[in-house]
Amino acid sequence: xxxxxxxxxxxxxxxxxxxxxxxxxxxxxxxxxxxxxxxxxxxxxxxxxxxxxxxxxxxxxxxxxxxxxxxxxxxxxxxxxxxxxxxxxxxxxxxxxxxxxxxxxxxxxxxxxxxxxxxxxxxxxxxxxxxxxxxxxxxxxxxxxxxxxxxxxxxxxxxxxxxxxxxxxxxxxxxxxxxxxxxxxxxxxxxxxxxxxxxxxxxxxxxxxxxxxxxxxxxxxxxxxxxxxxxxxxxxxxxxxxxxxxxxxxxxxxxxxxxxxxxxxxxxxxxxxxxxxxxxxxxxxxxxxxxxxxxxxxxxxxxxxxxxxxxxxxxxxxxxxxxxxxxxxxxxxxxxxxxxxxxxxxxxxxxxxxxxxxxxxxxxxxxxxxxxxxxxxxxxxxxxxxxxxxxxxxxxxxxxxxxxxxxxxxxxxxxxxxxxxxxxxxxxxxxxxxxxxxxxxxxxxxxxxxxxxxxxxxxxxxxxxxxxxxxxxxxxxxxxxxxxxxxxxxxxxxxxxxxxxxxxxxxxxxxxxxxxxxxxxxxxxxxxxxxxxxxxxxxxxxxxxxxxxxxxxxxxxxxxxxxxxxxxxxxxxxxxxxxxxxxxxxxxxxxxxxxxxx
Length: 598
What we know:
The chain is mainly alpha-helical. Helices cover 49% and strands 5% of the residues. A five-stranded mixed beta sheet has the order 1-3-2-4-5, with helices on both faces. A two-stranded antiparallel sheet has the order 6-7. A hairpin with a 2-residue loop joins strand 6 (196-197) and strand 7. Helix 12 packs antiparallel against helix 13 and helix 18 packs parallel to helix 19 (488-510). The longest helix has 45 residues, at 533-577. The radius of gyration is 33 Å and the shape is globular. It starts with a strand and ends in a 21-residue tail after the last helix. Residues 441-447 and 576-598 have low confidence and may be disordered.
């Protein structure tokens, strides 16, 4: 039996002379939003069953994505050297705290020296939990899952305890009978129903400002739970980039980033969380330290959990950067610190991609998920390395492909009966290839599951997907678009929905919640065309090149004239030096440069 513990109950069990005082404790640290933590459930269950009835043995599972457990999880991470989830830790029996202190890692010792009162007491109870499971044979993405027999063998080697029921040790999560989805298949059963208004498939339930609020609210929750000193620099870099690109709260995000940069890494999460709560209050965001905003109680308007809001934040940020690049201008009503900047000040395509990697490294606490994403990034998967520095559409589509591939992998392992590709056909019929949708029948093929660009793009019109991303995460009413910057098909698509979106956003602004005051606003006045920035720059570049060519031609002509002038002067002088005898080039006339006398 697996005991689902809290931070408080785990401490009590470890301190109880009749419980942790006599028994080994196997503790699983997990995040309930982490897919690989889901896959670890049957492994932990199998290990618990295999050791059932063994004396001096107990097993507990601790959800570290809940605020009330955050401090105990942080202390266990620091003591054991854990970084991400899922993580398995062993706590020996007994209560030899002072001896355990001598074996703590340096950073854990340094923190302990600064703790006092209840915090110090909590830390001391956990000091013996320093034996951490480390996978000795890393697997590839094709077989990334833990094995119950291997985990049980580690327990035996560390504790001397032997399994009572070896037959309970299966390999872990069962992925042998899944059907690999074909990314090129026609639309399946809808899988993102929260995106639609109830009873109105295909009608967006949310305006972009509501997604912006959830994104920053989720960011604050992730910071509150996941801040670690070793991630400090990545967090500062992420916040500085968000200040430049996120559509709202640029000054506030920059202020937090600069304050953190000045403070430096914080080993005590309590000090950081106090600072973060103060910043959230001033910024108009809910206090993450309030129990009502704890992840176990928190309900987002546009998302089902922190993983969803993390992806939403990334899509908002990258799509906003991309559409600024397409138009060459800031957004209308742009709340980033680049709200009055021009094209030269915008982050480049490569800088935007680097931000995604840094953000994932800082905020994603599912260890295997993070490892797989960064491996894909470094291997240029999903056409990343072929996106040119002025290909803003390609930037947004790269992240869209990466997200769709991950969604399909997770759905495959969970035998999901819904289609996890985005956008659904109901939400954007124009995004799907009509011939594929109208075929009706399709036989699924068994394919590999690390799909490439061509396979992921196959069912879609990616130009329509790009503008659907803009509409969903930024808002077409916020974009300063010029006719010259769009193809005819794009122009028709944008014009068909922009006025409808304006009415929907105005209606949402009238009925907004008080907490959405700075996020859900009346759409700005319609954009008055001023001429394409890109076309103007191209014309200026062409004129500069033509002027350079003219200047080069005139310069060459002037140089030629000088050459001929010098040549003529030489001939005249040479001829004059030959005297009346007329020796010409072969004569013995007067030299042009005479030696000085004596």
